[in-house]
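Intended use. Records like the one below are meant for learning the mapping from a protein sequence to its folded structure. Do not use them to infer anything beyond what is encoded.
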Amino acid sequence: MSLCSEIGIHMSQPPVLWCDNIGATYLSENLVFHVRTKHVEIDFHFVRDMVAKKLLSIKFISSKDQFADIFTKPLSSSRFGVLRSKLIPYHCA
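Structure written out for the chain above:
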């Protein structure tokens, strides 16, 4: 949110981070630190703190609907078209 405010974009709600890992989604919302999660990287703790402060929202998205695949994976033209059509409502005007 800091970057957004620095460039003049003011958000009425916290940004949503879409995650296709249900376990990571649950861990980001669970403020209890478990012994099994002590190996988790420092950036995960940063995200969990942001969620706790209500500055970031984590939502689950199925792997088959993950928009980021357009930019990170080789896709068939039909799959690319399906994901691209879902991005169109979010483009900047």
